[in-house]
Write a structure and sequence with these properties.
571 residues; mainly beta; Pectate Lyase C-like; globular
Length: 571
């Protein structure tokens, strides 16, 4: 197979496969089947894989399935350069019931930069990415309407329909599709090509539409040219972006993407590298490409140079082993982190990722974060994973594109006093933008927003399931029942949130969360289309924002606020 032809074809190691159109389709499918068999139900395992397809048209029988901790990508400049027969990711492993195809735990996988010449099924939930894709047929986001809790699409063209089925929430950003079918609680569309988004909106339908993406540069991706070899494309930053970056008639701009030859990257290997060797490469002004695997870090990685790229493939995982952070960056322009899973380690960390300081503006060259996933607990190990906070964004002008920040509610060593973590994410910088922010089960606030002039589009959050008693979960020094999921701190003068869904499942005891979201009473603090849902269990959430909005106190009940500004509901 191609991955055996030497480092010129595959310099990324044994956990990466590189195929060409000349490879025997039977052998390619045999490898893909073996990976799926190994990874279909491997929810908390240690295996990580990347599969790359060289540009060209492949046999129609090649229809990949993408299991846990697996990334499948094309290596062309455009997705239409690399053509596969299909894509089918189902959800049959969680239940013995043949009619119960739940994708609620289909996490940690991704697909990028390919053309699918038929229908495709992508039945997934959080911590997944579907980027820079072309689909000739219909894209199904569910497996025969089994429950799903996703998710994220960006920079994608679907010629026919996207069918979201039972998806509870979703963000579709800067894409084009023939039509959309399906709704549940909170489906958000931003920057899509004109005429694509559903015309209905709340309260009649659970759709929110934002005409333009305020600022975005698409995620960096790997390419191959027979003459030049491998290189990483870093797409340009666009303001007021609409439509797809790789289609000639959309997002016209005179500026060019940046291409970085692979020789300028240090190829990290989880079997050989330590934090010291990776930091040495960073000091030598190298970018870092993390090949698939788990990196046990004895100290934090220090990103100190502007425009440095840290790119993971195959859900490369960073895990601290000495109570240290995983990554800390300086306050420099243009730093990029993409495609990484941060996994809390055996000793308590104060945080897993910290970005910059609030010292300067980066408006001309924003800091960009893509497909970053954070986990406290659940992994198959023998220790109690703990972290005070998963991620702290200190810098101004940060773009976050598809985050899942998760204190585990299931898996190994999961309990209120075991996988201890107070807060999911803190955003301290000004002009921070978060697109598809999903934060779940932390023991105090899920999200703390402290900076001015920020924006969050599509928020999904579940409050903790495992609170042992009301007395263990009261805020403001015990004066208020529960913690809001999303707190915009007093002193923030401007903030915008669009399409926010906050859910409760008080599994173990009767509890009250007084409010799902807390915001200051400022005219430039504007929340548009927010809902609360009581999933199951014990009651409940009493208010949606501050003291406003209906309570949800019975299974399946949903409360909404369409517009909240300046301390009041706007009619």
């Amino acid at each position: 197979m191609s991955q055996k032809r030497g480092r010129d074809i595959n310099p990324f190691g044994e956990r990466t496969y590189v195929f060409t159109p000349e490879d025997d389709p039977k052998k390619v499918n045999a490898v893909l089947r073996e990976l799926w068999k190994k990874q279909e139900a491997n929810q908390f395992g240690d295996d990580r894989y990347a599969v790359f397809f060289m540009p060209g048209e492949y046999h129609k029988s090649i229809v990949p399935k993408v299991g846990f901790y697996t990334q499948i990508s094309g290596l062309g400049e455009k997705p239409t350069d690399t053509k596969l027969g299909g894509l089918y990711v189902n959800a049959r492993w969680m239940s013995d019931d043949p009619k119960n195809h739940m994708a609620l735990c289909n996490f940690w996988r991704g697909i990028e930069n390919l053309k699918i010449q038929d229908d495709a099924t992508w039945a997934v939930s959080q911590a997944t990415f579907f980027r820079r894709m072309a689909v000739d047929g219909t894209l199904f986001l569910h497996d025969e309407n089994g429950w799903a809790s996703g998710g994220f699409i960006a920079d994608t063209c679907v010629n026919k329909m996207i069918d979201s089925g039972s998806q509870q929430q979703w963000l579709t950003r800067n894409s084009r599709f023939g039509s959309w079918r399906g709704e549940n609680w909170n489906l958000v569309f931003m920057g899509d090509a004109p005429g694509c988004d559903p015309v209905d909106t709340w309260p009649d339908r659970a759709y929110s539409s934002v005409e333009y993406t305020p600022v975005i540069g698409e995620k960096p991706y790997l390419c191959y040219d027979p003459k030049e070899g491998y290189y990483v494309v870093v797409p340009k930053v666009i303001r007021q972006a609409r439509g797809i970056s790789w289609m000639e008639d959309e997002r016209k701009d005179d500026s060019k993407d940046t291409c970085i030859p692979l020789v300028e990257f240090y190829l990290a290997d989880p079997e050989k590298d330590s934090a010291k060797s990776i930091n040495a490469a960073l000091k030598e002004k190298k970018h870092i490409l993390f090949t698939p695997g788990i990196y046990e870090l004895e100290e934090s990685l220090k990103v100190e140079r502007e425009n440095t790229v840290l790119l993971g493939i195959g859900l490369a995982t960073l895990r601290p082993v000495a109570g240290n952070p995983c990554v800390e960056t300086a306050d420099e322009d243009g730093i990029i982190l993409a495609g990484l899973l941060f996994d809390a380690g055996p000793k308590r960390s104060e945080y897993l990722l910290k970005v910059g300081q609030k010292d300067r503006s980066h408006e001309s060259s924003p800091i960009r974060l893509y497909d970053l996933f954070f986990r406290v607990g659940g992994a198959s190990n023998q220790y109690d994973a703990q972290a005070d906070t998963c991620v702290i964004l200190e810098s101004n002008d940060v773009i976050g594109d598809n985050f899942w920040v998760w204190r585990a509610d299931h898996g190994d060593n999961v309990a209120w006093d075991q996988n201890v973590s107070k807060t999911g994410i803190e955003l301290k910088g000004d002009r921070n933008y978060m697109y598809a922010l999903m934060v779940e089960h932390f023991q105090e606030y899920q999200t703390l927003w402290k900076g001015d002039a920020g924006m969050c589009v599509m928020y999904q959050s579940e409050m903790p399931y495992d609170v042992p008693a009301q007395s263990a979960w009261n805020s403001y020094g015990g004066k208020v029942h529960g913690y809001a999921s999303f707190k915009v701190e007093d002193g923030v003068k401007a903030f915008e949130g669009i399409g926010l869904g906050i859910y409760s499942y008080h599994r173990d005891t009767t509890l009250e969360a007084y409010s799902a979201m807390e915001v200051p009473d400022e005219e430039k603090v504007h929340i548009h289309n927010i809902c609360t849902v009581m999933l199951d269990g014990n009651p409940g959430i009493s208010h949606v924002i501050n003291d406003e909005g209906d309570a949800v106190m019975s299974r399946g009940s949903r409360a909404i606020i369409l517009d909240y500004r300046g301390g009041r509901i706007e009619k």
